[in-house]
TrEMBL record:
The keyword Ribonucleoprotein does not apply. GO terms for cellular component: membrane. It holds the Pfam family TspO_MBR. It is a multi-pass membrane protein. Keywords: Kinase, Membrane, Transferase, Transmembrane, Transmembrane helix. This is Sensor histidine kinase. It comes from Nitrospirillum viridazoti CBAmc. The chain crosses the membrane at residues 18-43, 55-75, 87-105, 111-130, 137-160.
Amino acid sequence: MTPHEDEPPAPSSVSRALILFVVLVLGIGLAIGYLTVPGLWYLRLAKPGFTPPNWVFAPAWTILYVLVAIGGWLVWRRDRDSRPMRLWWIQMLLNFCWSPIFFAAHLTGLALAVILLLLITILAFIATAWRNDRIAALLFLPYAAWVAFASALNAGIYLLN
């Protein structure tokens, strides 16, 4: 008996693909975080009063990256060439570009433009994934909320400095 195209993938391949998504997103995210540690420059910036303590960012991003990875895997599993999947890759690229622009290059204005594009792309992902993969879309809601908050922080830093 030969497998049919519409049969779900075997559990072991599902597990490997999901693990790969999580490792890819977390690994790149953690590497960029390690390579672009905020440092003295960031500590000296004037920041908005709603800036959370620095220790909040690492756990928040770790949780969000896991959600983003699972959401990407769900969409990839359904259709690897879909619009939501393309938006998923674009938002990952924008996400991974932000830290070097903000923390390494100290370009807070350009970083603000990038994070706003990131937010728009996340919202577009949610809107396009909603119809076919509501779970993937829902997994992106906390990410959208955090990036909206991070956009406000970035804007505040840009305006105060």
